[in-house]
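User: Structure tokens for this complex, please. No commentary.
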Amino acid sequence: MELARFLHGTSDTRTGGQTLTHGRAYEAFGNVFFGGRRRQVFTRLARLSGARPGDRALDVGCGTGYLTLCVADAVGPTGSALGIDPSPDVLAHARRRAVRHPQCAFADGIAEDLPGPDGGYDLVVSSLMVHHLPEDVRARAAAEMYRVLRPGGRLLLADFRPPANPLARHLVGAVTGPVMEHNPVHLLQPLVRDAGFTGIETGDLHPWIHYVRAAKPTDPGTPAGPGTPGASAAPGERA
Ligand SMILES: C[S@@+](CC[C@H](N)C(=O)[O-])C[C@H]1O[C@@H](n2cnc3c(N)ncnc32)[C@H](O)[C@@H]1O
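Assistant:
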């Protein structure tokens, strides 16, 4: 259906994933979708990410930059927040709204081949992006997030949680398409764990968001896994 195509855009030749092509319309839909709670949800996500003054943060699949700007507020003028996305249209929209945030920048990029050196970020965040990736590249994207984080750096992934009620779920599918109706958010946790992250915590935010937060071990040479001594910095804690 049209709205599903508009929400999930066109196929990106670099990734096979779906990129957005209508920044302004996505923005309008986002406000309706969150039923007036968008600011609250994304501010909470920024807080859950553990973003703090001076952090170098990366927002993967930033879209129109809503979360990037919330994170930019948290990292302040001594930090930096870079949002990357493969869609030129949403990046143009994000740049327009970030004029009063000199610590905030936007660039072309894809999750499975992130810009930046190993260990270049204190924090990686990503909201509503993973369901855009083909299943067979999700592990690669998680590995890239791990690579660009410094030891002890923090990760926050958030994605759409389909309603438990079958009728409501079906309605979501009718409006937004099958990807969101059946979005397997429970797989975010194993995705993050298998990439090597530790200290994993999960939760839900009303109305539609499931999140996973985790940390790159302070000693990445230590095998990952629950209970591994010295392997994790709790999310939100600086190593
Ligand atoms: C539903 S939007 C979410 C945007 C924003 N993070 C938010 O929460 O409003 C998903 C975004 O992921 C982007 N995307 C699609 N494939 C991607 C990829 N391989 N790497 C990074 N971003 C991708 C799309 O272009 C789109 O802007």
